[in-house]
Amino acid sequence: MKERRQRGGTAWLAVGVTAAALAGMAPAASAARDGQQTWRDCAGQDTPAGMQCAAIEVPVDWAKPDGPKIKLDLARLPATEPEHRIGSVLHVPGGPGAKGIEDLQLAAADLTELRRRFDLVAYNPRNTVWRDQWPQSCMRPGTSLFEPRNKKEYTTQATAMAKAFEACQKADKTGLFAHMDSLSVARDMDAVREALGEERLSFMANSYGGVPAAAYARLFPQRIRAMYLDGVINQVEGWPNQGLRALPVVERVFTRFTAWCADTPACALHGQDAGVVWRKLVRDADRKPIPVTSSEFGKDKLTGWHLRSFGFPTDPGPGNTNWLAFAAAVDKARGGDGSGFAEFALGNARVWAMPAALAMTCGDDRAYTSYAQLQKFRRQARKISPNFGAAAFDALGCAGWPLPVANPSRPLPTRGLPPVLGVGSTWGDYAWTESFTKMIPNSVTVGYDGPGHVMYLSGRKCPIKHATTYLAELKLPAPGTTCPAE
Questions:
Q1: Phi, psi at residue 362, to the nearest 5°?
Q2: N or C: which terminus of the chain carries fewer CB neighbours within 10 A?
Q3: Residue span of the signal peptide, if any (predicted)?
Q4: 229 - beta bridge partners?
Q5: 190, containing H or E segment
Q6: Which residues pair with 294 in a beta bridge?
Q7: HSE toward the beta carbon, residue 459, CA cutoff 13 A
Q8: In the Cβ-directed half-sphere of 220, how many Cα atoms lie within 13 Å?
Q9: Is the pLDDT of residue 55 over 80?
């Protein structure tokens, strides 16, 4: 199977925010008008045959439709059986900050059956415009995130973040800093629908793309024909609740890890109780942080919070390589060498404090609003998860957000919405996805019985088959349906 890219989580932010944006697709010759849009053949390396490109303009601020505009790039793969064409499926990328056109390039070969009946459409959301133009000052972390032990530490960290946000907003020439919430993204999505000349759209949303998908359902329920949700976060329920939903899953996967280690002589903790070793390491690091020197981030210290938040890989990796590396890192760290955790943990503690990254998400109500809220969450988290319960790094990073929350978490009106189909990994994001689909009557979530995230971008045949049947025929699988690991 060809190499797949991970989307929509911590790993993307740790790597993608600091990487140069990939080149966009250039339009070539041969134009055709459709709806309100002129499409041209795309030119570029790895462009699937038949892919067409276009662009639309949308307001930076939808409350000021005649104000400054930005351009959003679009791409589509027209239906291969136009005589049986049903309509368009719009891909809603995750991240936030993933480029939907790149995702469509990646997934095209695995979606050939779906493409028989649909135009497959992708776009690069407004946060990708931000990624290409953000001021360098917005890349400077406001702090290196840590778990506050008291109200004073919480206030100090939030104040540092507030100053960084304000400096970023002042340097921003695009105006996007204040307008990357998912309600704005949803209005962009409807502008795409209008440009396609469609009365209703079908959707494939993944990961953070579930947040604009929910916003679209809130604003434009009558314009949704069908919606497939793959490993999505449920912002409607609130970020703290989503964090708590994830913890029992991580605990179960950790139990799998400890059993695997007990049965695997190559595991660096073989012959010991790996869970006991891990918990002692975390407690010790909370009392006496581990000094580390990172090639990228210099000298720092790893606390138990760093380890709980960024240490354990829930995906064992090919040949269990991730778990082998984790066990080796734990073994070294208990001897005072935290190098196995340093780059990823320190990198995330800084990336999640970068105004450039957080401006794409804080407007969706991601912050702690007070130290009391943090304390409540931490008590609940530690009760649920002895191994990983801790303050949420994303909520800490957004705690200094200087603007009103544009898209607060609140109940989603479901009247008029069609039943939706969800898919999620039982090793990871199933609980999030199911919490979303359960809001909408008669919906179904299929469990993928293995690790992974975003199945239709990972080439998983069983989930793609269910998605294709649902989108083409509006037929849902039976409740309780599962897919075996592939």
A1: -65, -30
A2: N
A3: 1-31
A4: 205, 422
A5: helix 182-196
A6: 298
A7: 11
A8: 26
A9: yes
* Helical (H) or strand (E) element with 161: helix 151-171
pLDDT, one tens digit per residue, over 226-274 is 999 999 999 999 999 999 999 999 999 999 999 999 999 999 999 999 9
Q: Which residues pair with 92 in a beta bridge?
A: 205
pLDDT digits (tens, 9 = 90+) for 408-443: 999 999 999 999 999 999 999 999 999 999 999 999
SS3 state at 81 = coil
Domains and CATH numbers, the chain: 10-132+177-237+410-484 (3.40.50.1820), 242-400 (no CATH)
Q: What are phi and psi of 33, to 5 degrees?
A: -100, 135
pLDDT in tens, 369-415: 999 999 999 999 999 999 999 999 999 999 999 999 999 999 999 99
- 8 Å CB contact between 40 and 54: yes
| Residue keyed to tokens 């679209």 | 216
Indicate the pTM of the whole model: 0.91
**At residue 259, what is the residue type?**
A
Identity (one letter) of the amino acid at 162?
A
Pick from 347, 353, 269: nearest CA to 310: 347
399 contacts: CB under 8 Å, gap ≥ 6: 154, 157, 158, 161, 367, 368
Query: Which tokens is 6 given?
Result: 């991970």
| Dihedral-angle region of residue 417 (phi above 0 means left; psi in -120 to 50 means alpha; beta otherwise) | beta
